[in-house]
Write a structure and sequence with these properties.
This protein is α/β, with parallel strands linked by helices. Helix content is 31%, strand content 25%. It contains four helices and five strands. A five-stranded mixed beta sheet has the order 3-2-1-4-5. The chain starts with 7 loop residues before the first strand and ends with a strand. The mean pLDDT is 89.
Length: 107
């Protein structure tokens, strides 16, 4: 995929049961490697604040660095209805979407 400035990747995962995350995360991280103009927003479905520590462990396990988080290249988010709002709810997780110019495309 050729990304343009301002593109966002949205990845929806269930961190408590994501067998495919081990396959998906290296591919997704490779897509944004060395880029500062494309963002990756990871949304954790079926979670809330009490899962903060386990989400941080998940991120570490999948080689997401504190620097990537601090710089904003990658963000970790509680889903809070985003998947449903953009039509990704009910999909088999993980789901990767591209957001460009306000439109969403499944990758």
């Amino acid at each position: 995929n050729a990304f343009i400035i301002g593109d966002r990747l949205l990845l929806f995962v269930d961190h408590t049961r994501c067998g495919k995350c081990s396959e998906t995360m290296p591919v997704v991280l490779a897509k944004i490697a060395g880029r500062t103009d494309v963002r990756l927003d990871i949304y954790f479905v079926n979670t809330s604040v009490e899962y903060k520590e386990s989400i941080q462990l998940w991120a570490k396990k999948h080689h997401i660095s504190p620097e990537q988080l601090k710089s904003g290249v990658i963000s970790l988010n509680y889903d809070m209805g985003t998947a449903q709002k953009i039509g990704a709810k009910g999909e088999h997780l993980p789901v990767l979407l591209l957001k460009r110019a306000g439109k969403y495309e499944k990758l």
